[in-house]
Amino acid sequence: MAEFLTDLKTLRERARREMDKGPITEAYGADVTRVLQVLNEALATEIVCTLRYKRHYYTASGLYSEPVAAEFLEHAAEEQQHADKLAQRIVQLGGKPDFNPDTLTSRAHAEYDASPDLIDMIKEDLVAERVAIASYTEIAKWLGDGDPTTRRVFEELLAQEEEHADDLRGLLERIPHEKKRG
C-alpha cells in the first residue's frame, strides 16, 4: 500500500464521526461555501438561458424560422437539464438551490434577450453560449482537483454549451446573407 494513503481504520473512524457532512470529507479540497455560490450562479445562468430559448422558440417568425425554432426548443430542454444537474449538485454539497425569480438575472452570467428579429435571436443566443463556455472553462480550471465531481459536472455542461454554440454558428451560416444585415 502506498504511503500517501490514509489507513483504513482512520478513514472509517472519520466517516462515522462526520456522517452529517455527507460527501464532504477531509479529502475535499475546495471552499464549499464558494463552490455553492458558483453553482448557484451557474444555476441562475441556466434558468435564464432556458427562458431565453423558450421565448425565442415561441416568438421566432419568418421564412427560416421553423428549423431555427426547433433548435431553440432543443436547446431550451438541454439548458433545463443543465439547471437540474446543478441543483442536484448543490443539494449533494449541503446547499440550497436558489430559484428566486427576483434575483435570477442579476446572478446569471448570461443575459435574457427579447429580440424580435430571428437573426438577432440567434446572435444573442450565440453570445450567451460563448459567455457560458468562457465562464464554465474558468470554473472547471478553478475547481481543479479540489472538487473533481463538480468539475466534471461543469465539463459536461461545457461540452454541450460548445455544441450549442456550433449549432448556432451553423444556423447563421445557413441563412442567406441579405437576411443578416440590420
* Total DSSP E strands: 0
CATH superfamily: Ferritin, core subunit, four-helix bundle
Element order: H for helix, E for strand: HHHHHH
Number of helices: 6
Can you name the CATH architecture?
Up-down Bundle
What kind of sheet is the major sheet? none
Strand-residue proportion: under 5%
Could you say what the CATH topology is called? Ferritin
Write down the overall mean pLDDT.
Answer: 91
Bin the helical content: 55-70%
Approximate shape: elongated
Structural class: mainly alpha
CA radius of gyration: 20 Å
Structural domain tally: 1
Poorly predicted spans: 178-182
Question: What report would you give on this structure?
Answer:
- It is a single chain.
- The chain is mostly helical.
- It has a single domain (30-177), classed as Up-down Bundle (Ferritin).
- Helices cover 68% and strands 0% of the residues.
- It has six helices and no strands.
- α2 packs antiparallel against α3 (65-92) and α5 (118-143) runs antiparallel to α6.
- The longest helix has 28 residues, at 32-59.
- One of its GO terms (cellular component) is cytosol.
- Residues 29-179 form the Ferritin-like diiron domain.
- One of its GO terms (biological process) is intracellular iron ion homeostasis.
Describe this structure in a few short sentences.
This protein is mostly helical and 182 residues long.
